[in-house]
Amino acid sequence: MVTVLSEAARSPRHRRIARVRERMRELEVDALLLSHGADLPWLTGYRAMPLERLTMLVLRAEGEPVMVVPALEVPRVAQADDLFTMVPWSDTDDPIALVDAVVGRGSGAGGPLHLAVSDRAWATTVLALQRRWSDARWTEASTVTSPIRAVKDPRELQALRMAAAAADRVASLLQAGKIGLVGRTESEVSGELAALLVAEGHQQVNFAIVGSGPNAASPHHQPDSRVIGTGETVVCDFGGTFALDGDVGYCSDITRTVVTGPPSGQIDECYQVLEAAQQAAVASARSGVTAEQVDRVARDIIDEGGFGHLFVHRTGHGIGIEEHEDPYLVAGNSTPLQPGNAFSVEPGIYRSGAFGLRLEDIVVIGEDGSPEALNTVDHGLVVVEA
Ligand code: ZN
Ligand code: ZN
Ligand code: ZN
Question: Which ligand is nearest to the Cα of residue 167, counting in written order?
Answer without folding.
Answer: 2
